[in-house]
Fold these 2 entries.
Entry 1:
Amino acid sequence: MVDIVLVGWLPASEIFLQALEGAISKTALLKISEDDLGGIIILGGAIEGGEIAIDRGEISIYSSAERVTKAFELIRKYPNLPFVFSGYSGRIAPKGLSEADSFKQLIQEQGLSEAMAHYEDRSRNTYENALFMKPMIQEFGLRTDSGQLKPWLLITSASHMYRSTKVFQRLGLDVLPMPVDYQTAHHLRWGKFDLVDGAQNWNILAHEIVGLFAYWITGKI
């Protein structure tokens, strides 16, 4: 009974998830100009490619679709910035389209220019995202007059942003966080009981806690 209450009573999980999602503040785009930016990074984890996309001829997007929609918004807002989508697949034995290929198809379907588009299609986790993108960022990133790389906007889920920024910083890459896909508000829903939402919150928390510990113990952050 206690475990059901712990899972279903949303404040029990929201209080921790809220802290995680708020650990990294969103970049205030109104305070910076396009000239201040080096490019746009979009981390995978929201797109269902694989065999279904090939069979059905349509790309499906997970509940973290804001990673994709925010990317479209910023690509339209900053058409002169290079952007890199990073992601192969999170599946153990992936088949069919990679996430990168799927995002490329979505870009074409949206009628967005691919003149500044770049795709990294090998990474299977956050560390590989940053590691495999680093040479691309160094090659395609816009620089200051002194030759220094300008910071890149980083799009990923709010719960994933803390670990992501730490990985990029560890690899010497300057990023400006653009967290999306929030699962909590500024206030806790004290009277809310929902086993499905609660289980999802605890799953996100467990995933990030395990990821942070694993990356810390292996020196990746």
Note: The chain has a mean pLDDT of 89.
Entry 2:
Amino acid sequence: MSDSVDKDSKTEEATEKKIRDTIEKGQLPHSKEIAIFTSFVAILVYTVFFAGEAVAELGAFLSNFLEKPEAWPLGTERDVIELYRAVMMEIGRAVASLLMLLVVAGVGASIFQNVPQFVGERIRPQASRISLFQGWKRMFGVQGFAEFLKSLGKLVLVIVVLTFVLSDDHRRLLAGMITSPVAFATVIRGIAIDILVAIVFVMAAIAVADIVWSRFHWRADLRMTKQEVKDELKQSEGDPIVKSRLRSLARDRARQRMMAAVPRATLVIANPTHFSIALRYVREEDSAPVVLAKGQDLVALKIREIARENGIPVFEDVALARSMYKQVSVDNVIPPQFYQAVAELVRVVYGNKGQRRTP
């Protein structure tokens, strides 16, 4: 019941991250029918292009062996080994091309479906792979039953097609039995090719259907619940609470750096309580006044307090303070539209300093 409820709740398509993680774990859609189809294609190619010559050579060897047994003495153990080795070599030459074609077909089927990659997770020992209970579930569960029905359907389809294709071949077989062995071998080869062609066409249809189904089923298994999508979004973008805390810490550090810079200010522009802007201007260093700190409400009051403690003049100008607060940035020079107003205040500051120096 819980499994069905869980599947029903997975209404969202898999995200790119989940698909990428699944692929990295080696959990890719795979169709066994593609490998079977390519194997039959390899056998068909062998039968059409290689089997005739290979079987002829093998038949000639066996014929020579049967007609001239005296050429193969079996008096000692060494003679038996030599005969065994010769027979195996002839059989090996006959089927070597078939084995190579089957290997190429298997590798090609794998590459056709997915790009080869090494995945350590696939070879890691897992208890579920040797568990009798898990094995029983795989064999007799829903997946096992589906595989059984698929195999049964393939068998029925192949039998029907072969019955139709070979309906007239029994006459060829009977006619070939009264001919020479070489001609009869040709008849057998022709019938085998008919059988393989029919099987290849049947397996091609089954393979196409199976690869479509396997990819659809893979996508369906990757579906996510709404909560899983939300959790993944949180992980990818960061927890909002943590991000808010980090932003708060960053603001605190920036505020501390501003307050530490206020004692170096040349003057502070403020309205009575709401805004304060600390500016520094040294003719030899700066082309225009630089904003060291700015603040509103409690921060503004703190800037004014530090300025008074360090003997920095504070000019109260409501309009100028409000306008500058919105348009200036800390550690940047003031915009050109404030040059004249600030220059007058700087002139006052330097004038007062000159008066203090005069005895």
Note: The chain has two domains: 20-112+166-223, 247-357.
